[in-house]
Request: fold
Amino acid sequence: MTDSPRQAPMPATLRAGRPPRHPALAIRCPHCSAAADMRCTTRTGRTRIQRLAPCDARLEAHATAHAEATAVCPDCQVAPGTPCRKPNGRPLGDIHPARRIEAGDAA
Ligand SMILES: [Zn+2]
Ligand SMILES: [Zn+2]
Reply:
């Protein structure tokens, strides 16, 4: 009779051993064209290498999307979820820098 377990149950910390996904991966990378939820890649010769960190452009795009989704723009006064607009009411095509600061994404 043996009461020593042959296989200990796997601790939850080990099962969740993968590092948390970077929030910027939720959007497509405008730099290397990695799809949403895919890691950024870099071309070296014929192969595509997965990068551990998202491209700067992807981080930038994510910060912009995050600010647009969550912050009221102090500059053009649009509500969260609404794109920034110019004083003439036309879309700005980007967000005002003040909005990104408002969103608390100073990085
Ligand atoms: Zn990328
Ligand atoms: Zn704005």
The longest strand covers residues 41-44. The chain has one domain: 22-102. The pocket of zinc ion (ligand 2) is lined by residues 73, 75-76, 78, 84, 95-96, 99 (CB under 6 Å). The longest helix spans residues 56-70.
